[in-house]
Structure formats: C-alpha cells, structure tokens
C-alpha cells in the first residue's frame, strides 16, 4: 500500500498549506498568522475585529465601508458631504 500524506488545509489568502502551529480560523477557513490581516487596509486582525466575506478578511471598519448600508440616511448631512466616489473600495 503506497504512502499517502495527510492533506493539510490551504490558506485562502496565499494558497499555501496551513499547519496547526500557525493557524488562525475565521468563517470556517484557516489562515496563516501573517495572512490574517485586512485585505483593504492591511491592519492585523484578531477575534474581536475580524469579519470574513467570501473567504476574504476585513476589519470591521473596512467591511462596513465596502458592504454596509449606503444612501443618504446612512451618514448623510452637511457634516458628511464629500466628493469621494468610493473608487478605492473596488466595488463590483
């Protein structure tokens, strides 16, 4: 019977094998400690500020900016007027 190595989970961020000593878990996926950062602002994440969307990690602030509610009722008013089009958010 040939030797078959145990299949290790792959990190969604870099595609390499994740071993138990270096894993961080979010949304059912295992990540390397160095890959466990926000995909928009590169902030280091932990269990209190991590949000996962389709195997992509975000901090709570960036996730809210990209996938949160939009429109005038959410932050509108004279103090929030801006000419920012949101192009840096890479929205679909």
Automatic annotation (TrEMBL):
Q: Keyword Repeat: yes or no? A: yes
Gene this chain is encoded by: Dgri\GH21720
Question: What PROSITE patterns has UniProt attached to this entry?
Answer: LIM_DOMAIN_1 (PS00478), LIM_DOMAIN_2 (PS50023)
What UniProt keywords apply to this chain's record, in alphabetical order? LIM domain, Metal-binding, Myogenesis, Nucleus, Repeat, Zinc
Query: What does the entry list under GO cellular component?
Result: nucleus; Z disc
Q: Which Pfam families would you find in this protein's record?
A: LIM (PF00412)
In its UniProt entry, the species of origin is given as Drosophila grimshawi
Domain LIM zinc-binding stretches: 9-69
SMART domains given in the database record:
LIM (SM00132)
Q: Which InterPro entries match?
A: Znf_LIM (IPR001781)
Q: Which CDD domains match?
A: LIM1_MLP84B_like (cd09404)
Q: What is the lineage of its organism?
A: Eukaryota, Metazoa, Ecdysozoa, Arthropoda, Hexapoda
User: What name goes with this protein?
Assistant: GH21720
> Where is it localised?
Nucleus
Give the SUPFAM superfamilies listed for this entry. Answer: Glucocorticoid receptor-like (DNA-binding domain) (SSF57716)
A single GO BP term for this record reads: muscle organ development
GO molecular function terms noted in the UniProt entry: actinin binding; metal ion binding; structural constituent of muscle
């Amino acid at each position: 019977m040939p030797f078959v190595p145990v299949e290790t989970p792959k990190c969604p961020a870099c595609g390499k094998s994740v071993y138990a000593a270096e894993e961080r878990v979010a949304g059912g996926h295992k990540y390397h400690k160095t890959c466990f950062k926000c995909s928009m602002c590169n902030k280091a994440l932990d269990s209190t500020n991590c949000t996962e969307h389709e195997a992509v990690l975000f901090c709570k602030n960036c996730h809210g900016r990209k996938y949160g509610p939009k429109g005038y009722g959410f932050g509108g008013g004279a103090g929030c007027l801006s000419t920012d089009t949101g192009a840096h958010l890479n929205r679909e």
